Amino acid sequence: MDFYTYQYLQNNQNNWQYVHIGVIIILVILFIAFGIRYLKNRWDVKYKDLTIIVGVLCLLIVGIQANDYTNLRNSIKQTGQVTQIVQQVATKLKVKPQRVLINATQLNNTTNLLVKTPKGYFRLLFSEDGTQFVLEKIQLSHPEIKIQED
């Protein structure tokens, strides 16, 4: 079972987005460079073809990025909810949020959230509307825990 630290939840939301932005910037620079090169040498058809290929790749990557952006917004929202839950659990148990580990990075309706603290393991039981929760102390038999930390 994987548990995630508070720091991991805060830091690992946007790492892959920088790679996508870097790829888009490189493709746009190549598109401009091949376009300028083609305009200088109109008789050299290979620059025209390269400009078209890079332009299509730019459109494809931007389309994928737009789709990923909506998914990223949902993911950030859900991860933000998980970090808020960690803060609330820490407040209720009177420990620092950095000492609280949780077994999910995103919330969904079927998630059975478990929390590991210095005071033991707890299960979060949510109300029907999902705005409130109750902490139930549990005992894990044979806990095989991997901690994902930043």
Task: Give a written overview of the molecule.
The chain is α+β, with helices and mostly antiparallel strands. The protein has one domain (2-148). It has helices at 6-11, 15-40, 45-93, and strands at residues 2-5, 101-102, 114-117, 120-126, 133-138, 146-148. A 6-stranded mixed beta sheet has the order 5-4-3-2-1-6. The longest helix has 49 residues, at 45-93. The radius of gyration is 24 Å and the shape is elongated. The model has no long low-confidence stretch (mean pLDDT 80).
User: Based on CA inertia axes, which overall geometry fits?
Assistant: elongated
Span of the ends, CA to CA:
17 Å
Q: What is the ordering of alpha helices and beta strands?
A: EHHHEEEEE
Low-confidence stretches: none
What structural class do the secondary elements suggest?
alpha+beta
Rg for CA atoms: 24 Å
Overall mean confidence score, pLDDT:
80
User: Helicity level, as a percent range?
Assistant: 40-55%
Give the tally of β-strands: 6
Number of helices: 3
Number of structural units classed as domains: 1
- State the major sheet: 6 strands, mixed
Give the neighbour order of strands across the main sheet. Answer: 5-4-3-2-1-6
Quaternary class: single chain
Query: Hey, roughly how much beta strand do the residues contain?
Result: 15-25%
Notable features of this structure?
150 residues; alpha+beta; 6-stranded mixed β-sheet; 3 helices; 6 strands; transmembrane
